[in-house]
Amino acid sequence: MKPTAADGASGPLVLVLNVGSSSLKAALLGVGGSWLRQWHAERELRGEALGDVLEQWLLPQLQPWWPRLQLVGHRVVHGGERLTAPTRLRPPLLAELERLVPLAPLHNRPALDAIRWLAAAEPQLPQWACFDTAFHATLPAEAYSYALPRAWRDQGYRRFGFHGLNHQHVAEVAAAHWRASGRTGLPRLISCHLGAGCSLAAVREGKSIDTTMGFTPMEGLVMASRSGSVDPGLLLHLLRQGIPAEQLDHTLTRASGLKGLSELTGDWRQLRTAAAEGHAGAQLALAVFRHRLLAGIGAMAASLEGVDLIALSAGIGANDPQLAEELQAALGWLGPFELLRIPADEEGVIARECWNGFSRDPADPAFDAAGG
Questions:
Q1: From CA 281, how far away is CA 330, in angstroms rounded?
Q2: What's 285's DSSP letter?
Q3: Distance between CA 330 and CA 199 in Å, rounded?
């Protein structure tokens, strides 16, 4: 089904789809210097079939804009070792992304489903992808290597890092803020993506040199329903006790983190309210979250050999001034640093990066990893 109505405006548009395990975010951005959002919406999936939501909810809303739509850019969480640039989505590449689904099943599977659905519904519309792992392609070997036998490392078992699209956005905004204040060079930056998923990135000279997530988006900080780092010996113990791998996966990704600690919810705002009312589980969840966050910031500071800026972003980081105050008070030992709150903008990064790739020679292999 192709919408045909026009709104009378002019100028090309990029549609960005950010599909997660429980929500669909969509935005239309005008191509140009400011990349203004013309329209955006978010829909909780609540167990609905993604294809039905795309057909019945998304496409009708795109009708007034359709004649101006030039391409679709997707957020794909895991790009593996090879996919480190905006890439046109063609069948060989989809097969490669399919092989990566087990590494980020909550994110890569629904993104692939949306890509395939749109390819069937609108086969003439170019589709591109940006990868959350790409920003961390600059990690040095000492940061991305696990202390595992070489035979395993040679199979690609390494740390990748995630939330790279927003860490890139935060780094760009922080650099602009740094220059606007009359300072030269680029800041030593700790980018803190704190939302349903959480990760830190140590950014030096605009490049990621360390991060808290690893082979999958489960390592590192406490998250809404993901555990973050857990002693692998404990996981081996649970497996030996007869816990099936599927149950372990489900518990670590969907029933742990803030939700598991509080035995209440993974929603940060609800936990703030419950903790203030004396709920012991909520208080424990917030305390563990802060403890692990402070430890992670300390580790990133060590990698950077000092800190100039700490930027809080995503749903929790950008919107909770109380957390910013708590961190400012607890991190005085770092010496002078500036604390910023920067709203996330993955959609803006995706639109710009995909449009730049689309504008290049389509034969350029750097922007057409699928070939063909």
A1: 22
A2: H
A3: 19
Tens-place pLDDT, residues 217-267: 899 999 999 999 999 999 999 999 999 999 999 999 999 999 999 999 999
Clarify whether 267 is annotated catalytic. Answer: no
The one catalytic residue among 132, 210, 308, 345: 132
- Domain positions in the chain are 13-131+347-367, 164-336
Query: Which CATH number fits the domain 164-336, given the four candidates 3.40.50.2300, 3.60.10.10, 3.40.1170.60, 3.30.420.40?
Result: 3.30.420.40
Structure confidence by residue, pLDDT tens digits, 262-311: 999 999 999 999 999 999 999 999 999 999 999 999 999 999 999 999 99
Burial code of 106-133, b = ≥16 C-beta within 10 A, e = fewer?
bbbbbbbebbbbbbeebeeebbbbbbbb
Question: DSSP characters for 49-103?
Answer: -HHHHIIIIIHHHHGGGGGGEEEEEEEES--TTT--S-EE--HHHHHHHHHHGGG
**Are the C-beta atoms of 297 and 331 separated by less than 8 Å?**
yes
Amino acid at the residue 25: K
Architecture of domain 13-131+347-367: 2-Layer Sandwich (3.30)
Residue 301 in tokens: 């500071």
Structure tokens at 346: 């993955």
